[in-house]
Design goal:
Layout (H helix, E strand, L loop, with lengths): L32 E3 L4 H18 L5 E7 L5 E3 L2 E7 L11 H5 L3 E5 L9 H4 L5 E5 L3 H6 L1 H4 L7 E5 L2 H4 L6 H12 L4 E5 L1 H15 L12 H12 E7 L27 H10 L8 H12 L4 E4 L10 H6 L2 E3 L14
Parallel strand pairs: 4-5, 4-9, 5-6, 6-7, 7-8, 9-10
Antiparallel strand pairs: 1-11, 2-3, 2-8
Family: Belongs to the glycosyltransferase 29 family.
GO cellular component, one term: Golgi membrane
GO molecular function: alpha-N-acetylgalactosaminide alpha-2,6-sialyltransferase activity
Length: 339
């Protein structure tokens, strides 16, 4: 059955959330940064919340707030002990990591990255969760026989700016997702609420000191996927993500930005052009990778193909830097949000 034609405006860059000011909120179970020497009351509250969450998790599956089903609007219930987060980088080609990736309890992919067409030996064949940007919907639909029809057990999480995701009949992405679920009713389709999108923005600002709206940038699907993985997974093995300083090496290997587009843009050229961009909307790929490297010092995150680990912080940085990453289980939510 043929899906209706979707608007090409979905492929246009857009900010990842509305520009409405947001109060101090942070995503549940996501790392963030605080000043050393916080108040004793706040520390006690964190410990109390941690105990409560541990008691809850022992009697029911993990409920991830901010990700709601297209059909019944219920939150996502999902937890994985081990996750393989597979990027779309050309570094994956020739690595032969497919079987290793598929051994993880959950395999996470992004946008329209394929597993067929001979790529399975390098990127694996299983997909437990696929995080998809509003701008990639057209490409996913064009590959729906590969990505959708054969993915009855896969969870799909779509993200987009709030005006695309609204449920009052004016949200372009939301309307199309409803249609897609009517055509393929067994699909497990979720979308990120606008309140959760504001949390992602606030997390980026806390970790980098930069307001993405003021800096004229928008968060990448990689940012959403890594942060979702922190909520979802006990251990995260990331495949195909380079270190933050990789593109500053004298002669970094030249690989395509997407492994399935060998004639597409070169990865480092894409990263550098976006990082330096001031006009139009850009991703801050390198800035995001610096945050991921920082998180890997605290959380159970590991990088493969290429294999690397973040260097330890110098003692001076630990004593003078004034900030530390707080465990995802030590954070006290300041508000529960949903649609």
């Amino acid at each position: 059955m043929e899906l209706l034609c979707f608007s090409s405006s979905l492929c246009a860059p857009a900010c990842s959330s509305s520009t409405t000011a947001v109060s101090t909120v942070a995503p549940v179970r996501a790392g963030w940064r605080v000043r050393r020497g916080g108040s004793r009351d706040r520390s006690d509250a964190r410990r109390s919340w941690q105990t409560e969450q541990q008691q809850k998790s022992s009697v029911r599956p993990a409920v991830l707030q901010g990700y709601s089903s297209i059909i019944d609007h219920k939150p996502l219930k999902m937890h994985c002990h081990s996750c393989a987060l597979v990027t779309s980088s050309g570094h994956l080609i020739g690595g032969g990591r497919g079987e290793e990736i598929d051994r993880a309890e959950c395999v996470i992919r992004m946008n329209d990255a394929p597993t067929a067409r001979g790529y399975g030996g390098d990127v694996g064949r299983r997909t437990s969760l696929r995080v998809i940007a509003h701008s990639s919907m057209q490409r996913v639909l064009r590959s729906r026989h590969e990505l959708l029809n054969a993915s009855q057990d896969t969870v799909f999480i779509f993200w987009g700016p709030s005006n695309y995701m609204r449920r009052d009949g004016k949200g372009l992405v939301y309307n199309n997702l409803r249609l897609m679920n009517q055509v393929l009713p067994k699909l497990k389709v979720y979308m990120i609420s606008w309140q959760k999108m504001l949390q992602f923005d606030e997390l980026f600002k806390r970790e980098t000191g930069k307001d993405r709206r003021i800096s004229n940038s928008w968060l990448s699907t990689g940012w959403f996927t890594m942060t979702i993985a922190l909520e979802l997974c006990d251990r995260i093995n990331v495949y195909g993500m380079v270190a933050p300083d990789h593109c500053r090496e004298p002669q970094p290997p030249s690989v395509p930005y997407h492994y399935y587009e060998p004639l597409g843009p070169e990865e480092c050229a894409m990263y550098i052009s976006h990082e330096r961009g001031h006009r139009g909307s850009h991703h801050r790929f390198i800035t995001e990778k610096r945050v991921f490297a920082s998180w890997a010092r605290t959380f159970n995150i590991h990088f493969y193909q290429p294999d690397w680990e973040p260097p330890p912080l110098a003692p001076a940085n630990r004593t003078q830097g004034e900030t530390v990453s707080v465990s995802i289980r030590d954070w006290q939510p300041e508000m529960e949000v949903g649609w």
